[in-house]
Predict the structure.
Amino acid sequence: QVQPVESGGGLVQPGGSLRLSCDVSGTRLIGHDMGWYRQAPGKERELVAATSSFSGGSTWYKSAVQGRFTITIDDTKTRVYLQMNSVKTEDTAVYYCNRYPAEINSWGQGTPVTVSS
């Protein structure tokens, strides 16, 4: 594969949880710092979380998700996860993973997350 493959999105109620997964095996993203991005309807894509390229490394979060979302990368560096807890309606968006900073030719299809009661 050339692009990452995101999965795990869906419909969730406010206050619920989701775990997003990104498979970067076979791509040139392996070994790079990685990020989860999202694009809400009518808005630009934004970075929500980033991690260094190794498990247990440094992380960064957009203030709006700090304390609710957790980004992790597995030891093989082929899977990047985003644990989303206490979700809010404003978290509704299509979520993408890419290296950080993003590589223009490495956007996947994304996985949609809808937070609604």
About this structure: DSSP finds no helices and ten strands in the chain. The two ends are 36 Å apart (CA to CA).
